[in-house]
Design a protein that fits this description.
Elements lengths: L3 E5 L4 H15 L6 E5 L15 E4 L13 H20 L3 E4 L1 H9 L3 E3 L4 E10 L1 H5 L10 E7 L2 E4 L5 E5 L7 E4 L3 E4 L7 H11 L10 H9 L7 H12 L1
Parallel strand pairs: 1-2, 1-3, 3-4, 4-11
Antiparallel strand pairs: 5-8, 6-7, 6-9, 9-10, 10-11
Helix pairs in contact: 1-5, 5-6
């Protein structure tokens, strides 16, 4: 069975490790089944897409819409942009989460900007008619709760993209291009424990202040977050089918 490829861009070792652990846990994967590459650490080597069952791009402190981008961000974005173009052209199973939706939206001609930023929270997500029929969302109630927290969002979908889910604060929470290329604004790999861990790393960097971490995590613990994990399990199953 071919492994999956996780492309990360988090420079903080503990945040990168926690993200990897979340995709392993809720994707039902072992370390041998999820090959991780930290794109912020070094240039991305050529990727043989046929060697992988699917590709995942996680969240990031980077934003596709940043006006000022450092050398590392520019290089990582160039590497990921080229790979995402290949993924879309070949309709390779792909799941972009948070930063991944901005990247996919930008590459495919959508509008990614700061109009629909959301503070960290567990928010209700509603499915569109297409979302209710999509296999990646099979078995998920409407609505369901998922953790969000982002400075940018896809304000206008790329041409030909299918909107699958929305929220009150962000009209594009999930979309699909072709048959196998997906992106979510919400984090399917995050639970309340990981949210707390991640917020303590990034507090004070535009997402929340340190004193806000406790109430945000308490709100996330007060709702059912188990349903969103089905997205990852479905993605793994469909990519292997």
């Amino acid at each position: 069975m071919r492994p999956f490829l996780l492309l990360g861009t988090r420079a903080e070792d503990d945040a990168a490790a926690d993200e990897y652990a979340g995709f392993l846990r809720y994707g039902g994967l072992t370390e041998s089944q999820l090959h991780r590459v930290r794109v912020e650490a070094a240039p991305l080597a050529p990727v043989d897409l046929e060697a992988y069952s699917g590709v995942i791009v996680g969240g990031s402190p980077f934003n596709a819409s940043d006006e000022r981008k450092g050398e590392v961000q520019l290089r990582a974005e160039r590497d990921l942009t080229e790979l995402v173009r290949r993924v879309v052209e070949a309709d390779v199973p792909f799941l972009g989460a948070c930063y991944g939706i901005g990247l996919l939206g930008m590459v495919c001609g959508g509008t990614v900007d700061r109009r629909y930023a959301e503070a960290p929270a567990a928010t209700p997500i509603r499915l569109t008619e297409a979302g209710r029929a999509d296999p990646l969302l099979a078995g998920i109630p409407d609505p369901f709760h998922a953790i969000v927290g982002h400075k940018e969002a896809c304000a206008t979908l790329p041409a030909g993209a299918v909107l699958l889910a929305s929220s009150a604060g962000c009209p594009t929470q999930m979309f699909r291009i072709g048959r196998h290329v997906y992106a979510t604004q919400f984090h399917p790999e995050l639970d309340a424990d990981s949210l707390e861990h991640r917020l303590r790393i990034y507090a004070g960097h535009g997402y929340c202040e340190p004193e806000e971490v406790g109430p945000i995590v308490a709100q996330a613990r007060s709702v059912e977050l188990g349903h969103v994990r089905t997205v990852l399990r479905n993605f793994v199953a469909l990519a292997r089918d």
